[in-house]
Amino acid sequence: MYISHRAPAKMAAKFRRLLPLVALPGSASLGAVYAAEAVKKEETDCGCGKKKKTVGISELPIYDQPTDLEQYTYIEEDVGFLRQHVSKVRQAVWTGLDKMEGTRVYVVDKYRIAEKKTTDGLEYVQSEEGFFPRLGVITLSGLTGLVLGARGGLIKKAVYSTTLAGAAAFLCYPNLYTSVTNYSVSCY
Q: From which residue to which does the signal peptide run (predicted)?
């Protein structure tokens, strides 16, 4: 195992960067202990020959009890005609926007679920081992075309069933359908 001769220098540099982060909280706590000890003494000598009287913690002004409590009363503001009606309109608009946002979230959620299921179903039908599911999709599409064209004549039934069966075949066999279409177009 190789140890670089620069490893101690790198460690010292890292230690120098971390030292202020460690020393700052420690020095703050030492200062607090020193200040608490200074408060206990009644008189201190500042070194200039004069003695000063120290102030206790409870004598500091932030700990004073309020002697004169002011009484506050709530006075309701007079709302004008315009402000009152604008407020009503604003509240109605926000209520409507909140409902629209809830509906939007619901619709987007349902759309994503439907998109995921459709994509999964299409991938299953397009897989190589799915001959019978493909056959079922194409047959069901052709029968749906017959049902949709039931009110019309024979031509309407033929157009609907052929169109839907062709679309289903395109979804199930995209590569084969493209090559057959290209071949049939090139023949003309």
A: 1-35
